[in-house]
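Homework help thread (please don't just give me the answer)

Our assignment gives two proteins as sequence + structure token strings and asks us to describe the second one. The first is just a warm-up. Here they are:
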Amino acid sequence: MTETRTPVSPFSAGLSCKCPRCGEGPLFVNVLNMRDACSVCGLDYKFVDTGDGPAIFAIFILGFLSMGAAMIAEFKFGVPWWGHVILLGLVMPLFAVLLLRFLKATLIALQYKNKAEEGRKVKD
């Protein structure tokens, strides 16, 4: 008998950083290190190739947020220079790591759902 699974939403799998097939097994070992396979359903993660996608999205999102925060802090509140160092130098790298984790998991789930793979002229 084959077990039928309800499809997992790529965005819920990405936000929870879970396996894109079963939605239960953790995707990462530490903060951004991938597991070899899912501990629940056994999905092999060798297909994963997000490349620079998560970093590019994070750069655009964090660039917008950090510039907006810096401008609001400067022009509305008159924050001294050390306030900008704390805001941009300490808080933004933490946001970057957390954002990269969710973006990487979401792109992996989308890659799994859409069966995305490297382009070839002839199927092997």
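The one we have to describe:
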Amino acid sequence: MRHVIVYTAARLALFAATAGVLYLVGARGFLLLCLAILISGIISFVLLSRQRDAVSSSVTERAARMRENLAEGTAREDTD
């Protein structure tokens, strides 16, 4: 869960920084929002690849554990 929070916080920080720079350059309104989303997405794709991989592996591991627990519960119900 910690990896997800760190990655999300980093994405929000990149978006805020990008929006701030674009605001100083003169972008306003809908243009500011669209450019900030696009540019921060591209930057995060490059800069946050390691964090994204950590989030992906933690989510995959957690899903596998949940599947195993579900299978164990089903097996216990079948034997009862």
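TA reply:
I won't write it for you, but here's a hint about the kind of observation we're looking for: The radius of gyration is 20 Å.
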